[in-house]
Design a protein that fits this description.
mainly alpha
Length: 207
């Protein structure tokens, strides 16, 4: 794809992500996205065969960006696995506390809605969240090796539990407009991984 076409496609995706993170998938029309992106009206169906296809591509682009940010945090060589995991959770806490706890995670904002609307978007969500859990699992395993983490069960089960906890806490923070659920989940995370509170004193890496 030529550079200018690729730039236009990405602009549509980024604009759609920004609007849908506020309004949701169903409430956002393609015309609204194209107007906000400043691209010709006919561009949408040039790049995307349908709104569902756009949603799938948007999810894939979002998770690609998310995973890149996540790997940047987890790749810091001079920090223990526990320190890197806590930096990730603090970053989650910070981003989901934005805009009166509206956050900016598409899995939180659109997960329940699009999973019922579109099988292709559901699968994009499933694949993206599985990749996130893979990286959490790997870092937990590293923590078991370097002695900075201790868990009672399996690394995969613990990674899935932690992700589910944080996803649920983010939804509850949106409902309550309060960071209390995120604070509680941070404490539960330290408890599950047997990490002392001093780990939270290390500055988080900005995404």
């Amino acid at each position: 794809m030529p550079a200018k076409q690729g730039d236009a496609r990405r602009k549509i995706l980024d604009t759609g992500r920004r609007i849908m993170s506020r309004k949701g998938f169903s409430a956002t029309g393609t015309s609204e996205i194209l107007t906000a992106a400043g691209v010709p009206k006919g561009s949408f169906y040039h790049y995307f065969g349908s709104k569902d296809a756009f949603g799938e591509a948007m999810m894939q682009a979002y998770f690609a960006d998310y995973i890149a940010d996540m790997e940047h945090i987890f790749a810091e060589p001079k920090r223990t696995a526990a320190d890197r995991l806590m930096a990730y959770w603090r970053d989650w806490h910070e981003t989901q506390s934005l805009d009166d706890c509206q956050g900016k995670c598409l899995a939180v904002k659109l997960g329940a809605e699009v999973a019922d609307l579109s099988e292709s978007m559901r699968l994009a969500l499933k694949d993206g969240t599985s990749e996130i859990i893979d990286r959490i699992e790997n870092t937990i395993a590293e923590g078991l090796k370097d002695g900075s983490i201790s868990i009672a069960g399996d690394s995969r089960d613990t990674a899935e539990l932690l992700y589910d906890m944080w996803l649920g806490a983010s939804v509850m923070a949106k409902i309550r407009r309060d960071i209390g659920p995120l604070d509680t989940t941070m404490k539960a995370t330290r408890h599950l991984l047997h990490i002392s509170t001093r780990r939270d004193e290390t500055p988080a890496t900005n995404r």
